[in-house]
Amino acid sequence: AEVAELRARLRAVRHTVLVLSGKGGVGKSTFSSLLAHGLAADETKQVALLDIDICGPSIPKMMGLEGEQVHQSGSGWSPVYVEENLGVMSVGFLLSSPDDAVIWRGPKKNGLIKQFLRDVDWGEVDYLIVDTPPGTSDEHLSIVQYLSATHIDGAVIVTTPQEVSLQDVRKEINFCRKVKLPIIGVVENMSGFVCPKCKNESQIFPPTTGGAEKMCQNMNVSLLGKVPLDPEIGKSCDRGQSFLAEAPESPATLSYRNIIQRIQEYCEQHHLQEEKIM
């Protein structure tokens, strides 16, 4: 009955993409928010962003939705909308203050993830982006288990160039393989810094072991692209604005657009393959 409920609720979701990272602080929520903004730039597409980082929900702040509340309707919880075609759901909307700590054990987290999938009335959605916490534990197992009732296009794994981050990303890739979650590809974030004045590039996080590119070759996964470090990205997130719209000519924006296009192409191809099997 539970599986049937989830399947009925998510039947109208065309593509589902999970955003993962082995380590915290690599820019996963930033990537999730900009992926959602980039997909929603096409006004014909309906995009949903689900934040299941229950202990560290940063999506409301990044999407300019701090202080918003979730409304209940006859058909379930209504997402909070940034644009007409971009809806967001996060535990951050259920807290009385952005500074409240969520001190929950695993079963309560799993219950909330199930509730988000079962009770949120997303409507017809082209892309459901799921922002996950770092690691390979409760929340990840729950979301993969619940979404297996419908379908997942795959996971995008975010890393930074240094070995400390890549070490955890290798674990994340192995997690995906163990739970049979397709890997769309890896994004190397904070990949070099281009000085806005002199345009020279510096390696803030030197790729001592060859960076994401070498790791992807060794582990046989796709490198979707490299996003350079740009201080304006952090400022845009703090203001709750879309960096892609604020700095359309930035090298980081161009890199994001290429990555988003590759994700879209993968999802369409995956959808066609699923239709053939059916």
TrEMBL record:
A single GO CC term, please? cytosol
Annotated GO molecular function terms are:
4 iron, 4 sulfur cluster binding; ATP binding; ATP-dependent FeS chaperone activity; metal ion binding
| Record flagged with keyword ATP-binding | yes
* Keywords linked to the UniProt accession: 4Fe-4S, ATP-binding, Cytoplasm, Iron, Iron-sulfur, Metal-binding, Nucleotide-binding
Q: Where in the cell is it found?
A: Cytoplasm; Nucleus
Coarse class of the protein's main subcellular location: cytoplasm
Question: What InterPro entries does this protein's entry cite?
Answer: Mrp-like_CS, Mrp/NBP35_ATP-bd, P-loop_NTPase, YlxH/NBP35
One GO biological process this protein is involved in is: iron-sulfur cluster assembly
Q: Which domain of life is it from?
A: Eukaryota
Record function comment: Component of the cytosolic iron-sulfur (Fe/S) protein assembly (CIA) machinery. Required for maturation of extramitochondrial Fe-S proteins. The NUBP1-NUBP2 heterotetramer forms a Fe-S scaffold complex, mediating the de novo assembly of an Fe-S cluster and its transfer to target apoproteins. Implicated in the regulation of centrosome duplication. Negatively regulates cilium formation and structure.
**PANTHER family, alphabetically?**
CYTOSOLIC FE-S CLUSTER ASSEMBLY FACTOR NUBP1, NUCLEOTIDE-BINDING PROTEIN NBP35 YEAST -RELATED
In its UniProt entry, what is this protein called? NUBP1 factor
Organism, by scientific name, is Zosterops hypoxanthus
The organism's lineage is:
Eukaryota, Metazoa, Chordata, Craniata, Vertebrata
Q: What gene makes this protein?
A: Nubp1
